[in-house]
Amino acid sequence: MSDVECSFCQILEGRLEAQIVYQDERTLAFVDTSPVQTRHALVIPRVCQPDFYKLAEADYQATMHTARKVAQVLQTLPNPRKVGAAIQGFETPHTHVHLIPMNTPDDLCAKPQPEKTQAELAPIAERLRSALQGG
Questions:
Q1: Omega of the bond prior to 112 within 30 degrees of 0, cis?
Q2: What is the pLDDT of residues 95-106, one digit of tens each?
Q3: Euclidean distance between CA atoms 79 and 103, whole angstroms
């Protein structure tokens, strides 16, 4: 299932810690450790495929469905003007959708903040998890 060097596969296998906010049988969403904006989340498929357009249709649809679900919650906390999405994949060779709360167009491409610790990300993840569970 995994490429030993793929940090996202390591997260999926539980070998690398992440602040997970949502998961199902095909996808996982977690808070980015080097966020562009506060509450920057990533959505990944459970299969390791570097190019989103090469995903099996079911994995592609599941990834986009989860991205929409997480973006809808991000939009409510505390109401950015937009939630931007980007699929880059340069830094990690595993399809991932960046979901970034935005108030200006430049927010999508802002310089990442310094890396956050899991302890710093935990309250953000808890708020997102709670909202995703309807509470």
A1: no
A2: 999 999 999 999
A3: 9
Amino acid at 100: I
Residue 21's CB is within 10 A of a number of other CB atoms, namely 27
Q: pLDDT of 33-88, one tens digit each?
A: 999 999 999 999 999 999 999 999 999 999 999 999 999 999 998 889 999 999 98
Residues 6 or more apart in contact with residue 90 via CB below 8 angstroms = none
DSSP output for the chain = ---TT-HHHHHHTTSS---EEEE-SSEEEEE-SS-SSTT-EEEEESS--S-GGGS-HHHHHHHHHHHHHHHHHHTTSS--SEEEEEE--SSSSS--EEEEEESSGGGGGPPPPPPPPHHHHHHHHHHHHHHHTT-
- The answer to whether 30 and 20 are in contact (CB under 8 A) is yes
Distance CA 20, CA 23 (A): 7
